[in-house]
Amino acid sequence: MKQINIEKLKVLKERIQKIQTQNIQFYIPQIGRNIIRFIKHPEADLPFVPIGYHYLTNVSVLCPLIVENRPCPLCEMADRLSISMDLTDQGLASHFEVSEKGAYWIIDRSISPTTPYLFLASSKVHLTLINYLIENIYGDFTHPYNGRDFILEKSKHGMYFVYTLTAFPNTSPLAKDEKELNEIFNKINVDFRNIFICQPNDVLKQIAEQELALKRQEINKTSDIVQLQEGSSDDFLKQVKNLGDELRRK
Ligand SMILES: [Zn+2]
Q1: CA of residue 79 to ligand 1 center, whole Å
Q2: What is the pLDDT of residue 132?
Q3: What phi, psi does 99 have (nearest 5°)?
Q4: pLDDT tens across 83-114, in order?
Q5: What is the pLDDT of residues 26-66, one digit of tens each?
Q6: Packing angle between helix 73-82 and helix 201-249, nearest 10 degrees?
Q7: Which of 6, 53, 63, 102 could be 48's S-S partner, Cβ–Cβ 3.0 to 4.6 Å?
Q8: How much distance in Å is there from the Cα of 63 to the middle of ligand 1?
């Protein structure tokens, strides 16, 4: 029997404490309209930090390639499968692909004027925001004086939540004065390495191999079912033929 891994627990405890001391709150938008403002720290060159997840059968894991810029066994698995000569394996490549999101600091105007939340924007919302910035559609909407608020609408479609973003027609200041502005910036001056921590590569390698084995097993099971159905239809045809032969004989 394996003993409880104290070293692992210490790492986890440290991570929880770090997040607690930084008092980071993740943003969960309300269903309906939310009025939010994206913030960029004056020292940052982007208003977000790229975050990648691999959504596997039973777990979702952070992608070290996107988060920490180091090799990712799951991305490597996706690459390897995509060029596989085995068509079944090739079809599995997309299952291992990373889903890229953006972690943004935001203020929810209806909650508190100086409490920043960390908002993990879905790939779709993230891409929309990047496009706004590249195309310069709303200027620098994170600007502390001439930025813009957005309406983030959250609705439920079946099992999923759908988000839409609409920019306010006018610009507005982020805070009411310099003091409030500094208060906000101090709160978002946080090292993201303490928040999004990837698992070591040997663990990720193991996860990748296990997931591949699981998916292959699933596919084998479905092909068994298909074969069974084909088998039974053969049997059925044989029965019909036998019945026809019998009737003719009569
Ligand atoms: Zn990855």
Answers
A1: 10
A2: 96
A3: -110, 115
A4: 999 998 999 999 999 999 999 999 999 999 99
A5: 999 999 999 999 999 999 999 999 999 999 999 999 999 99
A6: 40
A7: 102
A8: 4
- Residue spans of the domains in the chain: they are 9-63+98-199
Give the phi and the psi of residue 35 in degrees, each rounded to 5: -105, 115
Measured in Å, residue 70 CA sits from the centre of ligand 1 at 9
CA distance readout (Å), 82 to 57, 89, 94, 201, 213: 19, 8, 8, 21, 16
Low-confidence ranges of the chain (pLDDT < 70): 17-22, 226-241, 243-244, 246-250
- Architecture per CATH, 9-63+98-199: Alpha-Beta Complex (3.90)
Q: What is the pTM of this model?
A: 0.76
Residues with CB under 5 Å of ion ligand 1 are 63, 65, 72, 74-75, 98
What tokens were used for 9? Answer: 């627990």
Give the other-Cβ count within 10 Å of 172's Cβ.
12
